[in-house]
Design goal:
single chain; alpha/beta; Rossmann fold; 3-stranded parallel β-sheet; 3 strands; globular
């Protein structure tokens, strides 16, 4: 678990996760920037990225997809959705 974008990227570089649940509203670096960083780095590019956000309008989903997320879930997601 990480509490901001740069910390999440640093931990991911060590751990090389297969799946990442990433909040969009992170301090210091939003989730969109985190997704773009994952997609730009060859070691992290293959991770399945799930955006978690309180916003789920069509434009929010489009923005998440454009940043590199594989899925977008509105908060709070149910266990079934996860």
């Amino acid at each position: 678990m990480a509490y901001n974008g740069p910390q999440g990227i640093a931990k991911a570089q060590e751990f090389l996760p297969e799946v990442v649940l990433c909040d969009i509203g992170l301090p210091g670096m939003d989730g969109y920037a985190v997704a773009r960083a994952f997609r730009a780095e060859s070691a992290l590019r293959g991770a399945f990225l799930v955006a978690l956000s309180g916003y789920a309008l069509p434009e929010d989903l489009e923005r998440a997809q454009a940043a590199g997320f594989d899925r977008h879930l509105a908060k709070p997601p149910s266990l079934a959705r996860l």
